[in-house]
Specification:
- The chain is built from 25 helices and 25 strands.
- The chain has 755 residues and is α/β, with parallel strands linked by helices.
- It has three domains: 191 residues, no CATH class; 176 residues, Beta-Lactamase, CATH 3.30.450.380; 228 residues, Rossmann fold, CATH 3.40.50.300.
- Strand 20, helix 18 and strand 21 form a beta-alpha-beta unit.
């Protein structure tokens, strides 16, 4: 902001997102600029506001930037106006105003000159209290018969002006708690938001007024650890997500080192080629940053521990080639969504929390932040983001943390850039995890596992934020690792990397977004058709949005009875899925019959409207006998349906009585199951028992890792191997033989893992 030769205490007013911001230069000052601690700083600020009152924020620039928001500036502007008003309009300190006071003239002139010209600009509260003290004293003299009536009237008039000041109204009730001249009283209303000089994001450090702590916890580890505090405010629907990142709690020496190092590093901007391998690029920049900070610390005679050096290098990388405070927020596994609204500098970041729904944070980004993030997302995605292409869908990978990113800008977003980040779980979701969280019950999980093994075609439907992509990801882990999988997505959300580490033969294809304009990326429908030429594979489509629907149904018809074909789609019921696929996306009615199963997941809400929970509400079979309307002609048959009173999915009579054409089709191709519903149902129940026992056992032995993807794949492999062994012995994998043997495997394997 300021060059080295800029005069100390000079200021500059800059327009940012439609608001004027006054930057005041305190670089090189021997003290920290504080309205609370320093009468000199307050006096200069009020003098500046007399010259430029149309300011929404004041920022004192030093190693850290100290920002005061519109509410605080408004109070200071009122004081500045009062100083001018009393001096120029009222002319309180003038012979004309005071000459009629007679013997009190000299005393009044000296007093008003002291209070208005000396004390008011630097300590308005002290000025007000001295006025009140003098008024009390002169009223006493008046009652004793002294001729001070006119003097009292002038003091009362001036006190009346002070009484209208918002600053005085806010602090009046606190006067008794502070001595006259004690500047600590200003901490109640004038505490600054702190911004390190290497970032433009403001952090509101002060605790919300009258707030109570609901929960407090730490995120990340070691040098990256941050403190999260959840506050509840009276009569406010949203809770406050108060984050204290490590970069906002550094001492002055560390800030100075980061500022110097940033000025060096920022001269090298990573190229598009370097961003092709972001993990390697970050490591290179981290090594350079660590060496650079170490050299700077040596030259400045500043001692740094190894931990300090690592922490500062990580912060520097985060705020040069990284995504700043967004990276810190993404470390919190409790967050689902991060929302940055436009105009970005006028609104705090909002988050959606697993336990507390939508919360408002204490972080306010800047236009510079938004522009910088957009440039990096354009570079990493290879997709356009401009007025002709105002929408960008991409993904963000930060080590073990990943997120889907949606960005819009003008003309679609009138206020400029806006972001929504959907945080993915660090590890893939599994059916046992969903059972534990009550999204699905064990029978529903067992039934879906049976359908996956039966190579059925299915759609996972739901509204936004219903968990449909996470549910689809959990179903992928039910596919045997010996089967190849191809995924097709416009934004990478499925747990492909995690599954690759679990020895899956999985190929990820990235296609053009349905919302994007022309690009070099391949259209989704072409990607789907290409997948059919890539060998025998299960085909998984991340989300069905537009023209790729027809190609997907081609794949379903080709892949029927051979491999799983599945995808997600927006819809709140089986019929809404049919309506969207046939009427909106143009898939022929007869082609829709290639769908075997529709799984509907949606949030349910509490009666007070304050809480919501994700649940699988329906598992519905699509039959093939209908011709025009599956709802009217009985083409949709629920196999399981959610009971809101019991918070549980229950099997329907059709499922219990074996009236499922899809399950019968699966059984018809399995020796020993054809025509034997009891044997088929026994296998579904066996899978239910295994899923439920996994959850119960993990709870009993306090080993939550047994619910994660790695162990789930091992468990599924063990189940299939034990089933194969039992089938070889007695002809069918009956539950009375398979389940006890699987339990013995579970106990043995868990002991091995716990060694």
């Amino acid at each position: 902001m300021f060059k080295a030769d800029t005069p100390l205490y000079s200021y500059e007013v800059v327009s940012e997102s439609g608001e004027n911001v006054m930057y005041v230069n305190y670089l090189g000052a021997a003290f920290v600029p504080s309205l609370i601690d320093s009468a000199e700083v307050m006096g200069r600020a009020i003098d500046n506001l007399k010259e430029d009152p149309n300011v929404a924020r004041i920022v004192f620039v030093q190693q850290r930037n100290y920002s005061h928001d519109f509410g605080q500036v408004k109070m200071l502007v009122e004081v500045a106006h009062l100083v001018d008003f009393l001096a120029k309009q009222e002319k309180i300190v003038s012979a004309e105003k005071l000459s009629h006071l007679g013997a009190s003239y000299y005393e009044a002139h000296a007093f008003f000159n002291h209070v208005i010209n000396e004390v008011l600009p630097t300590d308005p509260v002290k000025a007000y209290r001295e006025l009140r003290g003098m008024l009390f004293s002169k009223r006493a003299e008046l009652e004793n018969g002294q001729d001070v009536g006119e003097y009292v009237k002038i003091i009362e008039r001036v006190v009346g002006f002070f009484d209208e000041l918002l600053l005085i109204k806010r602090l009046k009730l606190s006067f008794d708690s502070y001595n006259l001249g004690d500047r600590d009283i200003y901490a109640e209303v004038l505490r600054a938001d702190i911004m390190p000089n290497f970032t433009f994001t403001r952090m509101v450090a002060r605790v919300p007024e009258d707030a109570e702590i609901v929960k407090q916890y730490s995120i990340a580890k070691d040098s990256d650890e941050s403190l999260v505090t959840i506050f509840r405010r009276p009569n406010k629907a949203k809770l406050v997500y108060h984050l204290s990142p490590p970069e906002y709690t550094l001492d002055e020496d560390h800030h100075m080192l980061l500022n110097l190092a940033r000025n060096v590093l920022i001269e090298h901007r990573p190229t598009a080629e370097e961003f092709n391998d972001p993990e390697r690029t970050r490591q290179v920049f981290f090594n350079v940053a660590r060496d650079l900070i170490g050299d700077l610390a040596g030259s400045k005679n500043i001692n740094l521990s190894f931990g300090d050096l690592t922490k500062l290098a990580k912060i520097l990388v985060r705020h040069t080639i990284g995504f700043g405070v967004l990276e810190v927020l993404l470390e919190d596994e409790n967050l689902q969504d991060i929302m940055v609204n436009a105009p970005v500098s006028l609104s705090p970041i909002f988050v959606r929390h697993n336990d507390f729904d939508e919360c408002v944070t204490n972080l306010i980004p800047s236009t510079e932040d938004a522009d910088s993030w957009a440039a990096k997302f354009r570079m990493t995605s290879g997709r356009a983001l401009d007025e002709a292409n105002p929408i960008l869908d991409t993904n963000l990978e930060l080590g073990d943390v990943s997120a889907r990113v949606a960005i819009i800008q003008q003309p679609l977003s009138a206020g400029g850039l806006a972001y929504t980040l959907r945080r993915h779980r660090s590890k893939p979701w599994t059916l046992p995890l969903f059972i534990k969280n009550k999204m699905i019950d064990s029978l529903g999980a067992g039934l879906l596992s049976f359908m996956i093994d039966g190579a059925r075609t299915m759609l996972v439907a739901g509204t936004r934020s219903s968990g449909k992509t996470s549910l689809l990801g959990s179903l992928l882990l039910e596919i045997m690792p010996s089967h190849r999988i191809i995924t097709i997505e416009d934004t990478l959300e499925l747990p492909v990397t995690a599954m690759r580490k679990l020895d899956y033969d999985i190929l990820s294809m990235k296609v053009r977004s349905a919302l994007a304009g022309e690009s070099t990326e391949v259209a989704a429908e072409e990607g789907i058709r290409s997948s059919l030429r890539l060998g025998d594979s299960s085909l998984i489509v991340g989300e069905i949005r537009s023209a790729e629907a027809k190609a997907l149904y081609e794949a379903m018809r080709v892949g029927a009875l051979a491999n799983v074909v599945a995808g997600t789609i927006h819809g709140g019921s089986p019929y809404s899925v049919f309506d969207r696929v046939v009427n909106d996306l143009g898939v022929p009615v007869t082609s829709f019959k290639a769908t075997d199963l529709i799984v509907v997941a949606n949030p349910i809400k509490s009666a007070d409207g304050l809480h919501s929970w994700r649940r699988v509400l329906q598992i519905t079979e699509v039959r093939k006998h209908w011709t025009e309307d599956p709802l009217r002609e009985g083409g949709f048959v629920d196999l399981m349906k959610y009971d809101v009173e019991e918070d549980l999915m229950k099997p329907t009579d059709d499922l219990i009585n074996g009236d499922s054409e899809i399950i019968k089709d699966i059984a018809a191709n399995v020796k020993g199951w054809a025509g034997d519903w009891d044997a088929v149902w026994d296998n579904v129940v066996l899978r239910q028992q295994i899923k439920q026992e996994t959850v119960d056992f993990a709870e009993r032995v306090k080993m939550p890792e047994l619910l994660e993807g790695g162990f789930t794949v091992k468990s599924n492999n063990a189940f299939h191997q034990i089933s194969d062994k039992v089938t070889a012995e007695i002809g069918l994998p009956t539950s009375d033989r398979v389940f006890p043997e699987w339990k013995r495997w579970l106990e043995k394997e868990s002991k091995r893992l716990n060694i």
